[in-house]
Structures
1.
Amino acid sequence: MNRQEAEILYNSGKEPTVIKLLEYDAENKQFKKKIAQLEKNSKTSSKPPSSDGPQDKDLKPETQKKDPAKRKPGGQHGHKGTCRKLIPVEDVDEIIPYYPDRCEGCGKQLPQDETAVTTGEPFRWQVTEIEPIKAAVTEHQAHTTLCECGCHTAAALPPEIVKSNFGSRLTAIIAYLAAVLHVSRRGTCEFFITFLNIQIALGSIQNLLEDTSKALDPIDKVLKDTLPEEPVLNADETGWRDRWLWIFVAPMFIYFQAARSRGHTVLLDVLGAVYNGILCVDRWGAYTKYHKRLFQICWAHLKRDFLGILKIGYSIQSADAIFFAQTMEKLRKQIMAIWYQFKAGKISRLILIKKTRSIIYAMKRCLKRYMHSEDRCVRNLAGRLYRRFDHLFTFIFYEGVEPTNNIAERGIRPAVQWRKICFGNRSDNGAVLTSRLLTVTRTCWLQKRNPLEFLVEAVTAYRTSNSAPSLI
């Protein structure tokens, strides 16, 4: 609107002017709401942290704004520092002693060997170095022997030897570089040439990865068969080119499944027709459609929902949004504070249940009050949570259940980082390889085992036709 149009509107009288201003105000609120939606990041929505851009790094919700004076980078005052520890003397490969040349008192020349009279413990300084790496090449020669009868008999090489020109450890290193360090096939070639002085073709790398996939097949099947028996599972999913990569986290292992669908059919395939345990997830519809028993809805996602509604409420001046989000976030903090006391062993589960009872009732009253709010965002979230209210507090009453889905999100984060580099898989076999490698390496991470050594064991067992190592 320009000045001339504004003057015409003003001269038209009170009623048309008021109507037009109200229309503009409604449009302005809609625009602000859309802007707030577009500005959402992982702190104010269910978007994963990996989706945040550099501009989102320092953004904070309205309620978390702090003093503009930023703290200095690096360790803060009172932070307990860490330093590299010396390894025991008996584990050192070489010790080089140093002795002073002359006495600082009289200037006399001092002995430069073990005959010197030393006092106290020497100052120790250790330097770690890697010697040039040289691959060990073993040549297997099958001879042909001439018998007295005139027959020529050729020796046969062991079956496990002729399966590949590359050993189990080298094969496992290639798998580790791909699954844990997310190195491309060409990057792996460069690594072997530069660091190990080994010439290896791209095709050979792919063949060795396919061998690794076959070696991990029985391990993968055992874990998949064990999943339905677990009493508590955390689950999540992320996009993977034209597929979806699902993660299922049990207390002692992690299982990945690459699938074409993000629907409940994947859960039917992995967990069977009925899963009798507790499923800890976000509110994605596939989980609620499949599972008809106990849930634990992730409170980290709910926190982001509350902060997102609060941000929208401030932008459009919605009293319902502001009060609802502030109330639910305040109650959430109270219940989490009591939960952390329980986790620290300061209170028993019985005390946890008693202390949280009044807070749970207060949350229920708040949700019921805002189920019919005029603010659509508030109304939708309050209604959904009220209908799922019994699934919000499973962690308070059942052992082994956490209030958030953090363990699944942490488990799937390396897969997201890998996807950003490789852009997913082009074939079904590649997707299977990806899921198996992630299953094994992330389970080793959970169990604090060395994933490289486990891969070596698995490949060796496959080539020698022995039983695969277990992750159970």
2.
Amino acid sequence: MIDRKVMNLRKRMAAGGTCCGVWLGLPSPTVCEILADSGVDFILADAEHSPFNQETQQHMLMAFRGSPTVPIIRVPWNDEVMIKQALDLGWGGVLIPQVNSPEEVRKAVAACRYPPLGKRGWGPRRVANYGRDEEDYKEVGNDSVLCIIQLESVTGADSVGEIVCIPGFDWIFVGRMDMAGSIGKVGENNSPEVWEAVRRIFDTAAGAGIPTGNAIQGMTPDAVQKQLDLGCRVILLGEDCDILRESVEGGVQAFRNVMNSREISITSG
């Protein structure tokens, strides 16, 4: 049976909706299983910077079976083989990094869509339930995939007016760290030049009705509001590594504070 949760999310976002999700950096089916029913709309696994091989990815995807959460993966590169393998495994969408020109956008779209919209090769093994739903998948294959591009250079921002006119992709993410690097300012992702480029992307995409996301994260109301104020409709709440680290470090600090108070109390007594 074809899972229609991706199509439902695409329709909701195309109608002007907002969604939320978390980054996934740990190659763990257990973490996926925990997140799958947490209430987020999507998870975004980062295969560009994390050690996700094909077998691990398949095990991770099994943990999402029956879940309402859409699994998305950032592939390592704008490569049609990597994109095809990810989609055939059953990822509901791909985030494609370093897409910084109209030509690169067209290449990304072509890898995600079957002909005549693109040139994705036919071979949907797992995503078509190992052949059981192949006929159904022929009908919905193009509609059941999120194609998300990541603009990560100032030159990409310069071309955004042309990019938003290219059909076939769904969302735009902005990569501010690499955007800073593209103008020789590594690590200065809050520089005025970067923010000017980011705002140009967001404003142009909003005018074209294309949802955007940014790498600002946080699970507080203020952090969510900051993303909304920027024009984001794809809201990132955090990353599994950060959530785990910050939670444990917060607990350790609470423990130290209590113990220090006890020691002061004992000394004072």
3.
Amino acid sequence: MDGNTGKELANMMFSYSNMNELEDENKLLKETVSQLRNELDRFKTPPLMLCEVREILEKNAIIKVPNGNQFFVCISDSCLDIRPGDSVLVDQKNLNIIKKYFKTKSFNVEQFVIIEKPDVSFAEIGGLKKQINEIKEVVELPLKKPELFRRVGITPPRGLLLYGPPGTGKTLLAKAVANSTDSTFIEVVGSELVQKFIGEGAKLVKEIFELAKEKSPSIVFIDELDALAAKRIDIGTSGEREVQRTFMQLLAEIDGFAPLGDVKIIGCTNRRDILDPAILRPGRLDRLIEVPLPDKDGTKEIFKIHTKMMSMDKFNVDKMILEMQSFSGAEIRAVCTEAGYFAIRENRFKVTEKDFYGAITKVREAESGDGEDYLNIFG
């Protein structure tokens, strides 16, 4: 092979190599263009609307759109396995059902509730021995030993109502019994259940109880129950009708639970006198537990609980307890915390009798409206 032939062969191999690279690059560019075109077509596709199926009529259905209106529409052949109550995707032009929408385990209701596994124990609650025994009988025993009730032949209450002044320990009792039964604690405020649009409040209540079943054993704690379950009146404003719809859904959900099931309901209110009798009738929240202001012994017990980790001088505790006779548990806790701040401000490690008396005065002024709102901080 002469030199010219070798050069020609090398040039041919180089050209062949370049051609392969160009073909590969061209193939990659075509795939990229195709992907971009598909992406562009996807962005041009009109969005589908999420609706609820109300009724099935052969190959047609009645659906409810998000604004509350209902329409008679067609069902596509690929979506014939839907049932009333299902969520479906429809095209926005003709509202024909395109496909079924499968909900995930993530509930939208979780933004309205507090879900936790409490670490509060009954040992941290002072002055409420009678109330602790009652809540154990109604909630703890049926969850831990349901066979006892079956053998005796009685059914325990589905739930109970805790009522009394603010700051007396109603929420702590509910959290403590959730802890003792290893239950999920689902806390919701009654006023949060009243929604802006018609039917949304009732749907929210339904989803809360679905969530409770999903996370059972669980305790549904409804704070400020009077915001939802106040006595019904015959005034026909749309807002009051919506509250009543939500309240009726709550009653239906409570009635739907087995007394020996793994879900218990605890209502909480400061105004038992304005509650609708329907929520308190036998079979619903029929066990009423009053949580009053602590007596002298209860005040002393609560004081000891909140000062057990504090470094204090020796002084006559019984005399000081008399100054807190009208205080709730939350206010007693506020006294202990504020007394600690008096010591910290003077760079002391021990809390004195003078600090506690100063704290009592400050909390009392807050209660009367002359000082800072310590009840909101510590309640």
